[in-house]
Each structure stands twice: as structure tokens, then as C-alpha cells.
Amino acid sequence: MAVYAYSYDFCSTCEYGYYYIHLLPAHAAAHFYVVIFRALLALCLSVSINAKASTEHSYWQNIEALGKNQEVYFYAWGGDGQINAYLQWVADQVEAKYGINLIHVKLSDTSDAVSRVLAEKSAHNNSQGSIDLMWINGANFATMSEHSLLLKNWANKLPNFQLTDPTNNPSVTFDFGLPTHGMEAPWGQASLTFYYDNLAIDGSVNNQLPKTLQQLLQWGTQNPGRFSYPQPTDFLGMSFLKYALVSLTSNQTSLNQPVSAHNSDAILSSLWTFLDQLHPTLWRQGKHFMHNGAQMRRLVDDTELSLAFTFSGPEIPAAVTRFDLPTSIRSYAMDDGSLSNTHFVAVPYNASQPQAAQLVANFLLSPEAQAHKQKAHIWGDKTVLVVSKLDPKQQALFQTAKPHPSALPFNSIKRTLSEPHPSWVKAIKQGWQIRYGVSK
Q1: Whole-number Cα distances in Å, 168 to 161, 267, 341
Q2: Are residues 210 and 94 in the same domain?
Q3: Residue 323: left (phi > 0), alpha (psi -120 to 50), or beta?
Q4: Which residue has the higher pLDDT, 217 or 22?
Q5: How far are the Cα atoms of 109, 248, 333, 345, 400 from residue 193, in angstroms, in the given order?
Q6: What is the largest CA-CA distance in the chain?
Q7: Do both 253 and 325 map to the same domain?
Q8: Are strands 101-107 and 71-77 parallel, antiparallel or unpaired?
Q9: Which of 135, 171, 414, 191 lies closest to 315 in space, CA to CA?
Q10: What is the pLDDT of residues 355-410, one digit of tens each?
Q11: Closest Cα partner for 317 from 191, 403, 424?
Q12: What is the CA radius of gyration of the chain?
């Protein structure tokens, strides 16, 4: 196809300007098309981006309009006074910002909330559910996702979600290896962190700090009754068992797959062998287990235990600051790896106030709320935000003074261990109960 160009020139004799038409050569015609194509593409992209931004802004304006001045029932574990106090602070903030009355329904087990939503669905209550927002991850998310109990494609539309850098940060879009599909908004990050009393573990020949699972077994033999873990019905107790299983399993791929009848016994056998050796060295000879991490922490404070663990490293200096633990406490990470994951909040599919719940979830993701939560004396829960994505004023919220002596030293975690597929939780729990449970 021929391409013609218009040019303008000026005649010095008659002093009149004139246009003339000439045929462009092939290479110039090609360049002409490229220039035009690029201009049109830039125009289309600009229109598309502006339209998308306008749509997103309009969507969130609608969420705000419908969500303000409502009552939100937030079902969340209530076993830690520090976390409960933080959620009361959140309630005060969202009431001031949005007129929302946030009610923290304290749970001893998140599975109770899962059962409630499932029961409501069975009763065909699809729009007036009793739960508006819930704290969730792992096996409970897998169950609710499988049974279509969660609102879909909302979390990725929260304005503050972009501050987590989701494109380059799979930890906020996958939960125990399962894609979240916008059904969960990330809230915090945690890694299994060990802590000890450095007056009790003094580094002597038979009292060296254990840095691996096998060293823990050896240390327990030399120092009987000074370590234990909560029963696996507790999240922290199950986390210790998963850490042990992952560390003992050579074929990690098998743990990323759903548990099955033909692989369960073979894979779990190494865990049972290890526990058979460990339990006689535990507090009360492994015949009695504490109910939760808070009880384990109290046993450390009472000097009954010398070594314990948590799934939130910053919780330890916070506990020392509150005088819930002695000042001789120190934190460290195991050399053979730290089990790590992200915890989330979700909106049930039948929430009575889904828009108000999303306003609360977006506030939980705000730099203000994330920075406040990360403070050692508040909660000490690690932020899910990528701080480099924040502006200087927001980044300043996360700046801390000199680290607390009991805090986990910077860059202590050299190796992270991924959570196994959620289906392994049930297999571990059932196997443990048969072998070591109270009813045995």
C-alpha cells in the first residue's frame, strides 16, 4: 500500500506558501506505520489504565458507602491477651474512621467458626451469616475453600493489598501451597522461633543449645523434663510436629501432595519413631501435654521449662517487656530450618456485612495498623507489607530503636521450611492421638 505525505513549502518569488504531495519510499513508509502504531497503542493503554483506575476507585467508593456505620463480627482466636488488646485498638480505629462497631468473638479453636459457617450453609442461610470476618489459614482455609464457604475475589481489590507486592510475593497469594483466589487478605507473617533461658542453658559440656532436631533429642536426654510442646489440637503444638516431620522427611515432594492411604504410614513412620524417643525426655515424661503456647510460656517463666518455642518471634521480647518472661530469655532459629507461613483474614460467603468486613480488612493491611501490630510491646507480629513499596513517611512507622536483647537476631533464619499440604494436619493429629493421646 502506497503512503503519501503532505509537505508545506514557501515560494520566495510570489511570497505564497503551498502544499505538495509526494510518495514516501518503502523504508520511510514502514517507519511511518511504526510511529502511528506506537501512538495508537500508547493512546489505547492510557485509556485502558485510566478506565481501570476509575473502575477500581468507583468499586471501592461503593464498598465504603455500603460498609460504613455497620456492625462487624470478627471471629478470631482469643487465647492471647496481647492480641485481644490489639484487636480492641483496631475496633477503636475503625469506629473512628468508618463508624463500624467491631465485635471480637473470641475462639479457642478456629474450626468452631468453620463448623458454624458450614452449618449455616446446610440450613440455606446464604446471606445473613453470623460471621462477617474471621482469622484463618492453612487447614481451615483448605476446608472452607473446598466447600465454597468463602467470599471470592475481594482481597485482591483492597487498596492496601498492593502494598504487599503480590506480583513478586507469593506468600500473600498462597496459603499452605493453595492459591487464595482473592478469598483471603494477608494479615501477618510468622516463623517457628525457639527461645531459652540463658541462665539454665549455660553452654556447658552437657548443656549446649540444641540447633537441630537431633540435637534437641540429645539435649532432652541430658536435661530431662526441661522441654515439651502443646498437644496437637493447638496450632503451636501441631506446628512443632510439622517442623519435625518436614525435617525428618527426605522426599519433600510427597509432603506437598495430599495425604493418601498408601503414603501416610510410610511418611509418618519417621515422626513416630522420633517422638517415641523424645517423649520420655519431656516435661512429665511426655505423659501430659500443655494445652497451648501461653501455658508453655508460663512454664518457662516459672522455670519448669528451660527451652520452648513460638510461631511469632517478636512475641518473645514483647513478653519480656510485659514481665511475662524473665530478662534472661534469648531467641534463636534452628539450623535445620524454620517452619514459616502467612496468616490471613477471610469473609464468609454468607456474611451479613461483607462490605464493612472489607473495610476492616483493608485497615488491617494499612501501614498504620501493620506498624502498630509489629511493635514488640503491642503484639510483635511481623508485617506482610513490603516496606520498600511505602513512601518515606509510611516507612518511618516501621523504624525501631535498638533491638531488645531477647529478640531474634537479624537474619537468624537461614533456611525456611514450607508448610506441608493441609491434609497432613488431620493425619498427624489422628496418628498422634492413637499413640500418645490421653485416651490411650
Answers
A1: 13, 33, 16
A2: no
A3: left
A4: 217
A5: 22, 18, 5, 23, 20
A6: 114
A7: yes
A8: parallel
A9: 191
A10: 999 999 999 999 999 999 988 778 888 899 988 889 999 999 988 777 889 988 86
A11: 403
A12: 29
Burial (CB count within 10 angstroms: exposed 0-12, middle 13-18, buried 19+), residue 149: buried
Is 432 in the same domain as 293? Answer: yes
Q: Which pairing describes strands 416-417 and 338-346: parallel, antiparallel, or unpaired? A: parallel
pLDDT band for position 206 (cuts 50, 70, 90): confident
- Quickly count: other Cβ atoms within 10 Å of residue 199's Cβ: 12
Rounded to whole angstroms, the Cα distance separating 167 from 155 reads 14
Q: Which residues pair with 191 in a beta bridge?
A: 340
Tell whether 236 and 323 lie within a shared domain.
yes
Packing angle between helix 354-364 and helix 367-374, nearest 10 degrees? 60
Cα 218 to Cα 76, 208, 225, 234, 278, distances in angstroms: 38, 10, 13, 25, 9
User: Residue 322: which CATH number?
Assistant: 3.40.190.10
Q: Which domain holds residue 50?
A: 4-62
238 and 96 within one domain: no
Whose grid coordinates read 483493608? 362
**141 and 258 assigned to the same domain:** no
